[in-house]
Design goal:
- There is one protein chain.
- The chain is of the alpha+beta class.
- It has four domains: 118 residues, no CATH class; 100 residues, Efflux pump adaptor protein, beta barrel domain (Elongation Factor Tu (Ef-tu), domain 3, Beta Barrel), CATH 2.40.30.170; 59 residues, Beta Barrel (OB fold (Dihydrolipoamide Acetyltransferase, E2P)), CATH 2.40.50; 89 residues.
- It contains eight helices and 20 strands.
- The strands form five sheets. Strands 2-11-15-13-12-16 form a six-stranded antiparallel β-barrel.
- Helix 2 packs antiparallel against helix 3.
- The two termini are 53 Å apart.
- About 4% of the residues have low confidence.
């Protein structure tokens, strides 16, 4: 009997000691296995929305200089790559020997035609005088000169009138031929039409040019490269409306090039209408102009461009990672499970886009308006609580809250914190 009492006493003592230990261990295990969330703070400040694109740096004007006439280039020093040239500066000269000969030939021909005009004028004047004297004699007495003789004087004068017209026309033709030869002679001097910088030189001294069906290219000149360069970008049709609005508001454009660790600034100069379609994607050329006093921007550079299309100041900013987070149904409050199950239908975005094609234009517009109504998640005990917000402008990190109960400093869940072992 005493042994049984002793055993019961020991069991009772062990029970008293184990129950607190059990509940303590259970509480500890619950704390250890509790889901730990990664959070991000709601902020307040400025949001700048941009449209990103890539483009190519080009001169605002590029002039391709060719040769109108043929012949060998004189062995003179030619402007080299990157040389700055002025308007009217001689860049190259074609050997003018043949063209000088043509000018001299046509000038001699013109002088000959002018001499022939003078000869015919003299003969015409002689005929006019003879006809006038015959008329005077016939006026005194018709018997002095017969009518047949009078006809000879008259038609001789008329013939010389016609010869003068022919001679003057021949002289005019010779004059134009002379001017044509002089013009061709002038084309042997290749001159710069505007101030600029030599981008490319495609000839060498002594090279022979053959200008037949197409003028050979000699130089390419970039005009005004120190004052202004252009960046030609291709912008998707979905963004072109915002680009048009940004141009009206003269919002700034910023871009970088791989050659310099520097941010360049410009403005939208043109939105061109000649669209391009590549694999069913429609893009429009957008031209950005930027100052280039140090010639850091060179033709052909690739630019990464950000068009500022809108801005909000002093607004509540929700981290984009919070808008992208969707918890599991077991992790949220019971009353928020229907909200979460509704969002799960959006996981298959491709299917949603395909189904949108069956909707009317009015239905599509309504769906797009509803997309601004979103939910974010905050901790409430061991579960998560949904907070509804209406969002607006967005950038790469934050999205504007148009309406909602959030304020700066609130913590939003953005993911599950992975356990860290070995500590």
């Amino acid at each position: 009997m005493k042994t049984l009492l002793r055993i019961l006493l020991v069991v009772g003592i062990l029970g008293v000691l184990c129950v607190p230990a059990y509940f303590g261990a259970a509480a500890y295990w619950k704390m250890v296995t509790r889901t730990k969330w990664r959070t991000a703070e709601v902020e307040q400040g400025r949001i700048i929305a941009v449209v990103n694109s890539t483009g190519t740096v080009k001169p605002k004007e590029k002039i391709i200089i060719g040769a109108f006439v043929s012949g060998p280039l004189l062995p003179k020093q030619l402007p080299d790559f990157n040389d700055e040239v002025k308007t009217g500066q001689i860049l190259a000269e074609i050997d003018p020997m043949i063209y000088d000969a043509n000018v001299n030939r046509d000038m001699a021909n013109y002088d000959s035609r002018m001499a022939d005009v003078s000869r015919v004028k003299a003969q015409l004047q002689q005929a006019i005088n003879d006809e006038r004297r015959a008329l005077d004699l016939r006026a005194e007495d018709k018997t002095f000169i017969a009518q047949a003789e009078m006809d000879k004087f008259k038609f001789a004068r008329m013939s010389l009138d016609a010869q003068l017209i022919v001679a003057e026309a021949s002289a005019k033709q010779a004059k134009e031929s002379y001017k044509y030869s002089e013009t061709q002679r002038a084309y042997t001097l290749i001159k710069a039409p505007k101030d600029g910088i030599i981008i490319a030189r495609l000839i060498e001294p002594g090279q022979t040019l053959a200008s037949q069906f197409q003028a050979p290219v000699l130089f390419e000149i970039g005009v005004g490269m120190r004052e202004e360069m252009q960046v030609h970008a291709a912008v998707d049709e979905a963004d072109i409306g915002r680009i048009q609005e940004a141009q009206k508001r003269q919002l700034p454009v910023s871009f970088t090039v791989d050659a310099h660790d520097e941010l360049f600034h410009g403005v939208i100069d043109q939105i061109r209408l000649n669209s391009t379609t590549t694999q069913n994607v429609v893009t429009y050329p957008v031209v950005v102009k930027a100052a280039n006093p140090d010639l850091k921007l060179l033709p052909g550079m690739t630019a990464a461009i950000s068009f500022q299309v809108d801005e909000r100041k002093d607004v509540v900013k929700i981290p984009n990672s919070a808008l992208r987070f969707y918890p599991l149904p077991k992790q949220v409050r019971k009353e928020d499970v229907p909200i979460l199950e509704g969002t799960q239908l959006k996981d298959d975005e491709q299917e949603a886009q395909q189904s949108e094609t069956t909707l009317s234009a009015e239905e599509r517009a309504e769906n797009r308006r509803k997309r601004n109504r979103r939910h974010v998640w905050v901790e409430e005990g061991d579960l998560l609580k949904a907070v509804e917000v209406v969002v607006g402008l967005t950038d790469s990190q934050f999205t504007e809250m148009v309406s909602g109960s959030l304020k700066a400093g609130d913590k939003l869940v953005i993911g599950v914190q992975q356990p860290q072992y070995g500590r």
